[in-house]
Design goal:
Number of strands: 2
Order of helices and strands: HHEHHEHHH
Shape: globular
Strand order of the largest sheet: 1-2
Strand content: under 5%
Largest sheet: 2 strands, antiparallel
Distance between the termini: 31 Å
Structural class: mainly alpha
C-alpha cells in the first residue's frame, strides 16, 4: 500500500513516490537495459536523505563524494548489484568512483546520483543504460510536437519504441 501525505517534507514526498514507482511495472521494464532494483533505490535514497541536511532535495559536493564512495562500497559488498566483480574490475570500480567524484557541479539532486549509479552499473555489467535511447525517443516526440503533428501521429511516434 502507498501512503502519501501532502504535508510531508518535499524530500520525504519525493522518496515515497520514487519507492512507489520502482515497485511498479513500467513501460521500459521489459527492455534489456540496466535498471536499479528496489533495494538499490532504497539504500541510495536513504543515504541521500541522511546527507541532505537542509531537506531541500540537494546535497553539496562533499555530500555527493560521500554518497559516491558509499555506492562504491555497496558495489563491493553486493548491495548494489554488479555481476562481474573480479580483481581487475574491483580496481576499475575504484577508478570509476574516483572519476565520478571529478564532476564539476556544486550541488546534486537525487536524480543526478541515480543516473551516475545507473551508468556505473551499466558500465560494469556490460549492459545498455538506455539513456541515449530514451533521450532520442523523447527528442523525436518533441520534434513531432514542434512540427505540428496530430495527436494520433505523436501517439504513434511515442509507441514506436
Amino acid at each position: 500500500m502507498f501512503f502519501y501525505r501532502h504535508n510531508d517534507l518535499i524530500n520525504v514526498r519525493i522518496f515515497k513516490i520514487l519507492k512507489f514507482l520502482v515497485s511498479e511495472d513500467k513501460f521500459g521494464d521489459t527492455k534489456s537495459v540496466e535498471n536499479l532494483n528496489i533495494n538499490e533505490v532504497e539504500i541510495i535514497s536513504n543515504k541521500f536523505c541522511n546527507l541532505d541536511t537542509d531537506n531541500n532535495c540537494f546535497i553539496n559536493k562533499e555530500g555527493y563524494n560521500t554518497l559516491i564512495d558509499f555506492v562504491g562500497e555497496c558495489a563491493l559488498t553486493g548491495s548494489v548489484n554488479i555481476k562481474t566483480l573480479d580483481d581487475k574490475n574491483i580496481e576499475n570500480l575504484r577508478e570509476y568512483v574516483i572519476d565520478l567524484k571529478k564532476t564539476l557541479q556544486s550541488q546534486y539532486n537525487l536524480s543526478d546520483v541515480m543516473l551516475y549509479v545507473l551508468l556505473l552499473k551499466a558500465n560494469f555489467n556490460k549492459t545498455d543504460s538506455g539513456i541515449l535511447e530514451t533521450l532520442n525517443h523523447f527528442e523525436n516526440i518533441f520534434y513531432s510536437i514542434s512540427m505540428d503533428y496530430s495527436v494520433n501521429e505523436i501517439d504513434i511516434q511515442y509507441h514506436m519504441n
